[in-house]
Design a protein that fits this description.
globular; single chain; four-stranded antiparallel β-sheet; alpha+beta; about 55 residues
């Protein structure tokens, strides 16, 4: 994990572990490769922390 990538996570710019991305019926979901947060794709290359609400 590089420090620069972790800074991106702090400002809300996450990157998924590509092999772990799945379609849950409504959106693509996965885990951030740098901070291990649950994330969801809002648009192409725009991943954000996943809301706990269904």
């Amino acid at each position: 994990m590089s420090a620069i990538s972790f800074v991106g996570c702090l400002i809300g710019r996450h990157q998924p572990l590509r092999r772990g991305v799945e379609w849950d019926g409504r959106a693509y979901v996965g885990t951030c490769r740098h901070c291990a947060a649950a994330i969801v794709r809002h648009s192409h290359n725009d991943w954000r922390k996943r809301d706990n609400n269904p």
